[in-house]
Amino acid sequence: MNPAVSVAGVSAAYADQAVLEDVSFEVKTGECFILIGPNGSGKTTLMKIMAGLLKPVSGRVQILGRRLKSYGRRDLARRMAFVPQQVPMDFPFRVRDMVLFGRSPHLGTFGLESERDHALADQAMDFTGVARLADRRMDQLSGGERQRVFIARAICQEPELILLDEPTAALDISHQLRVMDLMEKMRNEKSITVIMVSHDMNLAAMYADTLMLLHQGEMIQWGPPGRVLTYETLEAAYGCPLLVDQSPLGPMPRVTPVPGRYIREDLKTLIS
Ligand SMILES: Nc1ncnc2c1ncn2[C@@H]1O[C@H](COP(=O)(O)OP(=O)(O)OP(=O)(O)O)[C@@H](O)[C@H]1O
């Protein structure tokens, strides 16, 4: 089976500042692939390249078996949805209409939504817990509510591949779990491939099939969570003390940041 995404030798720069250096990886169809890394390591840049919003300086990107370059906008939107990190604030639209926009790449010439389109929008709003906000205006929502509406819109798009840049950053813990469980369900039931960026290593450890760690524009480790979330790798990337042990929930790593007051600087050991 073709990989859902194949990135080969991608480098990127803003003006003359290099931000990604020869990055290569593949994402299998139906897997949950989570990108982690310190601030400024190039995660959003890589997501924008995969979403076709930014051109790499060099390298090749294939999406669902085709060169990314060969897709038209609408064509790509039928197969891939992208939820950006910063969702726009100033939309005067109502929540229901915003979610329905997810159907636009699938609509015919006159752009009329069918009953099925409305049913999909209702379902997506239910899934993300925004159904009660359906008639509210987007600019009257909280940050987390707005983020959930954008996730609902992406689900409503019925993509084969969904890219989410820090989808849980503004969400409370219950909605974080709900969004991650939903992505897992979409993957299990519909073989949808999920690629996301997260700063939450514990959520990533619990949900990812594959993790990729970026550091200063380079991939320094990738693979199952147990291979990437090791003390040595994380310390090299983040440069701060972290404890890594096993999650009480199962055979996946648990990462605990260690406040300075627990460290004896002279001995470089933990005070327990
Ligand atoms: N539009 C831009 N113009 C110039 N430099 C940019 C632009 N966007 C990002 N950068 C720079 O590129 C580098 C990578 O940024 P990017 O947003 O990809 O990082 P990130 O890993 O997603 O960070 P974060 O975890 O903070 O969201 C950073 O040094 C950033 O300052």
UniProtKB/TrEMBL annotation:
One of its GO terms (molecular function) is ATP hydrolysis activity. CDD domains: ABC_Iron-Siderophores_B12_Hemin (cd03214). Gene3D superfamilies: P-loop containing nucleotide triphosphate hydrolases. The keyword Thylakoid does not apply. Part of the ABC transporter complex HmuTUV involved in hemin import. Responsible for energy coupling to the transport system. Pfam families: ABC_tran. Residues 5-241 form the ABC transporter domain. InterPro entries: AAA+_ATPase, ABC_transporter-like_ATP-bd, ABC_transporter-like_CS, P-loop_NTPase. PANTHER family: HEMIN IMPORT ATP-BINDING PROTEIN HMUV. This is Iron complex transport system ATP-binding protein. Keywords: ATP-binding, Nucleotide-binding, Translocase, Transport. SUPFAM superfamilies: P-loop containing nucleoside triphosphate hydrolases (SSF52540).
